Amino acid sequence: LIPLTEEAVAETFYLAEVLRPRIRAEYALSPKKPGKGVEEALKRNAAFAGFLGEDELKTGEVTLKRLATGEQVRLPQGEALGFLLSALA
């Protein structure tokens, strides 16, 4: 999970803690540009990268990017775990 702004760092941590009981979830401790975040996720062999920025904070959503295809989906944070479990099955 990648915070795009300083304001998103705490929310990124909380979302990672929600996901961790069911899937492996890592998060950046400081804001990153999307490209740098994807680069780091690829180094870790992640299937998805999640982004939280200003817009996502306002709407309570997260943007998830499937790294193998580049496909992106934006959905409510509460639906992220179900989406990822289904996509990774």
Output the CATH homologous superfamily.
Answer: Anticodon-binding domain
CATH class: Alpha Beta
Mean pLDDT: 95
Helix-strand category: alpha+beta
CATH topology heading? Rossmann fold
**Order of strands, widest sheet:** 1-2-3-4
What is the chain-wise order of helices and strands?
A: EHHEHEEH
For the secondary structure, the number of strands is 4
Estimate the helix proportion, in percent.
Answer: 40-55%
Total of DSSP H or I helical runs spanning 4+ residues: 4
CATH architecture: 3-Layer(aba) Sandwich
Radius of gyration: 12 Å
Shape annotation: globular
Q: Number of domains in the coordinates?
A: 1
Q: What share of the residues does DSSP label as strand, in percent? A: 15-25%
Q: Describe the oligomeric state of these chains in a short phrase.
A: single chain
| Distance between the first and last residues' Cα | 20 Å
The biggest sheet, with number of strands, parallel, antiparallel or mixed sense and barrel status, is: 4 strands, mixed
Comma- or semicolon-separated keywords:
89 residues; alpha+beta; Rossmann fold; 4 helices
Any overview of this molecule?
The structure is a single chain. This protein is of the alpha+beta class. It has a single domain (2-79), classed as Rossmann fold. The chain is 40% helix and 20% strand. The protein contains 4 helices and 4 strands. The protein has helices spanning 9-19, 34-43, 54-59, 80-88, and strands spanning 2-3, 48-52, 61-66, 72-76. Strands 1-2-3-4 form a 4-stranded mixed β-sheet. Strand 3 (61-66) and strand 4 (72-76) form a beta hairpin. One of its GO terms (molecular function) is aminoacyl-tRNA ligase activity. Keywords: Aminoacyl-tRNA synthetase, Ligase.
